[in-house]
Amino acid sequence: GKVPASSILASAPSDKNLDAWRESGCRTTHCNLEVLQESTLVFLATKPHVLPGVLQEIRPAVGPHHIVVSLAAGVTLQTLQRLLPAGTKVLRLMPNLPCVVQAGAMVFARGSGAGDGEAALLKSLLSSCGLCEEVPESYINIHTGLSGSGVAYVYLFAEALAEGAVKMGMPGGLASRIAAQTLLGAAKMMLETGEHPAKLRGDVCTPGGTTIHALHQLEKGALRATVMNAVEAATNRACDVAED
C-alpha cells in the first residue's frame, strides 16, 4: 500500500511473467531500458546467470539518480558495481517466500555508492512485506541458509507435528491448522517478547509434565544438532553458488 500500482513498471521477456503485474494494475513492458527511463528505483529480479546480460543491456541508461536493487542469489555487490557505471547506488536484497503474505524475512546490504537515504528508503518500502534488516554482505548467504531455505525446514516440522497428531487420532486437516497456528503463535511470542527461545521453551515445561517428556524425545533424536547442520549445509551451498 506504500506505492500506487500505476507507479510500477515491470519488464519481462514473456507475457506469462507479466500477467500477475497487470492483474495488480501495474504497467508492463518487454523493454528493460524503458524501466530505467521511467523509474528511479529499479529492482533486478532475475536468475543469477541471466543478470550479467541484463546489466550489460541497461548499463548505458543507468544514471546517478537511479537506485539499483539486485535480488539475484550469489551475485556480489562487487560484481554488481563492476558491471554498472562507477558510483551507481547499488544494494543487494535477499527475501524469502513468506513475503507473498506480508510475513517475510529480508536482509539487504548496500554498495559503496549507496548512502543512508537509499537504505532507509528500501527498508521503509519493504517493511510492509515483513521483517527487513540491513546487514553486512557476508550475512546474506547465512540468511539464505537460515530463512530462505529455513521456510522449508519449518514446513517439514509442521508436517511432522500434524502427522503425530493424526497418529494419535486427530483428523489431518484439523491437525495441520493447529500445527500452523502453533508455529505462528510461538514465532509471534519470540518477536513480541524479545525473550531468548530457551527461556520461552522453559516457561512451557512443568516438572514431570508432558512437554519435558516430549522434549527428551526430540533431544534423543538430535533435533537441535540436525537443524544446525541443515543451516550450515544450506549456507555453504549458497557460498558455492556465489563462487560458481
Automatic annotation (TrEMBL):
GO terms for molecular function: pyrroline-5-carboxylate reductase activity. Keywords: Amino-acid biosynthesis, Cytoplasm, NADP, Oxidoreductase, Proline biosynthesis. It is found in: Cytoplasm. The keyword Cytoplasm applies. Pfam families: F420_oxidored (PF03807), P5CR_dimer (PF14748). NADP(+) binds at residues 45-48. Residues 7-74 form the Pyrroline-5-carboxylate reductase catalytic N-terminal domain. It catalyses: L-proline + NAD(+) = (S)-1-pyrroline-5-carboxylate + NADH + 2 H(+); L-proline + NADP(+) = (S)-1-pyrroline-5-carboxylate + NADPH + 2 H(+). Belongs to the pyrroline-5-carboxylate reductase family. This is Pyrroline-5-carboxylate reductase.
